[in-house]
Amino acid sequence: MTATRTGTGVIHLTSRDSQISGADMVAALTPPPQFASATFDSYRADSQYPSQQEAKDYLVTFAGGGPAPERGGFFRRAKKQPETKPGVYLDGGFGVGKTHLLAAVYHAMPARRKYFGSFIEYTALVGALGYQKTVELFRGTDLMCIDEFELDDPGDTMVMTRLLGELVAGGTKLAATSNTPPNALGEGRFAAQDFLREIHAMAANFETIRIDGTDYRHRSLDGHAVTLDDADYARAVADAATGSLVSDDAFDDLIAHLARVHPSRYIRLIDGVDMVGMRDVRAFEDQSAALRFVAFIDRVYDAQLPIRATGLSLDQVFPEEMLSGGYRKKYLRATSRLIASTLA
């Protein structure tokens, strides 16, 4: 979704109307701003991790850009054709360029109908339109790109299994990214063993490609988010508000507001905003609130918005007991993005 210019000054996200129609949600299914021009050529593979270049080569072929390369290395099998399965699934840690490559597939594939969205955007669309209408909407789609694929509850498992199965049967190609291999989706979050048939059926649609590497956002960072004192924060907000639209909210108020807004609508909260301000940041005690914040930060990062904050450093908001649980990868990805956003 392209940000709408709404003027300059200071606003409160907690007072914003977050309503978004099904049509708006569909219109937003394009790569986020920082990947609007992502290409395979602009992807910088780290020479220390050959799997990055090998994944790129594989995806060029998947997108229709050339003959399948002969490979060894982590694939272990030469001359394997991407077309053997209708989908490709990029599995790897955060910050290794998976979303860049996913967007490059989107831009490179000569498809008449193609969509790019986060996992939560697709499940939210089902919630807004209903399952059957969503299937009808996407039927005949040439390519569906799904970023940040994850199954946090049984309902999502059943919905996405059915949806992807119907689309694949109709000839749709799939491309997805995740921090978790497809056959391990849901582990540590719900009784995944009760849904193994559905999870394995969905995984069967994908050729899994592992991408190794280190988080590019940390390659030149010291690993800590920038925290301002009250005076510096007030100055930063005032300076930015002179020519831009800036949000300024107490952290607790913002977290409470996120609980009243569906995560699919978080993008509307920051529409037109140029900088996000949070006062009196503190550590989370409730996991549901922490996960909502992760989804919010994903949208802030997608929009490439700088964050200014006071209180606890934002890389410390997820306590150790949360980091040691089933959502560890989500929290670490959010931490990485928070650090980068405070330095922007």
TrEMBL record:
Q: Which InterPro entries match?
A: ATPase_AFG1-like (IPR005654), P-loop_NTPase (IPR027417)
Pfam families attached to this UniProt entry: AFG1_ATPase
User: What keywords sit in the KW lines?
Assistant: ATP-binding, Cell cycle, Cell division, Nucleotide-binding
On whether Cell cycle is a keyword of this UniProt record, the answer is: yes
Name the Gene Ontology biological process terms. cell division
Q: Is the keyword Magnesium assigned to this protein?
A: no
SUPFAM superfamilies registered for this protein in UniProt: P-loop containing nucleoside triphosphate hydrolases
Reading the lineage from the top rank, the first entry is Bacteria
Q: What is this protein called?
A: Cell division protein ZapE
Tell me the organism. Microbacterium invictum
Kindly list the organism's lineage.
Bacteria, Bacillati, Actinomycetota, Actinomycetes, Micrococcales
